[in-house]
Amino acid sequence: MEAITLKNVSFHYVPGIPILRDFSSSITKGEFLTIVGPNGSGKSTLLKLCSGVCSARQGSIHLYGRPLSDYPRRELAKQMAFVSQENAIEFPFTVFEIVLMGRAPHFRGSAFESTRDREIARSVMDKTDIAHLAHQPVTTLSGGERQRAFIARALAQEPEIILLDEPNAHLDIAHQIEIFGLMKRLNVEDGMTVVAVSHDLNLAASYSDRIAMLLCGGLVAVGTPNEVLTSTRIREVFQTEVMVDKHPVRETPRITLAIPVEDGRADGRGSTAAIDVQKIG
């Protein structure tokens, strides 16, 4: 079953400068999909369109076969949670208060949380390893701690679908693996549909069922990590020389930067020359 379907979607922030162009694809219910691509390829915008934060200029987006625009905001928030890159909070709410905000779509007849709401908030804080920060103001947290707090807030919505825009940003290696591992457990054990944007191709390869690669607002390839993450395609899309072999344990693609030994620097392939998306496959 298709959870989210996009058909001929186009979007721009500034007229004449398209971010997505005639984009068509779908996200299957219960899958872990990671979206990769260079900066400016439309990854974050795609998540904003899927979440309803932005509206398509052309084309259609459906959630479980129903037009996304038909969903009331409260109903949509029960189906889907979105963790964006922009999480600026100036007021010193505690971590527990921030996480409880995720329960707002479930409040009935009162603006106050129930015992169950508090139990769910504590549970997701345990899952994201921030229970010890419950009474700490969010304004005092490190970037990684704050990121985990907002992921916990999203999980408190009890969504069927979670969209994460670079969830591993600001996180150290241990917490990067922990967050992707958590998302994978929720995906496998609870059947949650996970859609993440990531710049880390190795994390994407290790945890994703499928990978969608974008460039210049178009879909270059979508498929299993082995199908999408080839050295030729990565070279053409990212303008960077890489070596791709197999992870010794997972049997998934392993990407290594091909840095010349003689000078220890990249070989200068990072040009910004225009690339025809249609020719990359």
Describe the structure.
The chain is an alpha/beta fold. It has a single domain (2-279), classed as P-loop containing nucleotide triphosphate hydrolases (Rossmann fold, 3-Layer(aba) Sandwich), CATH 3.40.50. It has 9 helices and 12 strands. Mean pLDDT is 89; it is low at 270-279.
Task: Write the SSE topology.
Blueprint lengths: L1 E13 L2 E12 L3 E5 L6 H9 L6 E6 L2 E2 L5 H7 E4 L11 H6 L14 H13 L15 H14 L4 E5 L7 H18 L2 E5 L3 H7 L2 E6 L2 E6 L1 H4 L2 H8 L3 E5 L6 E5 L24
Quick structural gist:
The protein has 281 residues and is an alpha/beta fold.
Summarize this structure as a short list of keywords or feature phrases.
globular, 9 helices, Rossmann fold, four-stranded antiparallel sheet, 31% helix, single chain, 281 residues, six-stranded mixed sheet, 12 strands, alpha/beta, disordered C terminus
Can you tell me the CATH superfamily?
Answer: P-loop containing nucleotide triphosphate hydrolases
Order of helices and strands: EEEHEEHEHHHEHEHEEHHEE
Number of domains: 1
Largest sheet: 6 strands, mixed
> How many individual β-strands?
12
Q: What gross morphology would you assign? A: globular
CATH topology: Rossmann fold
CATH class: Alpha Beta
- Separation of the first and last Cα atoms: 26 Å
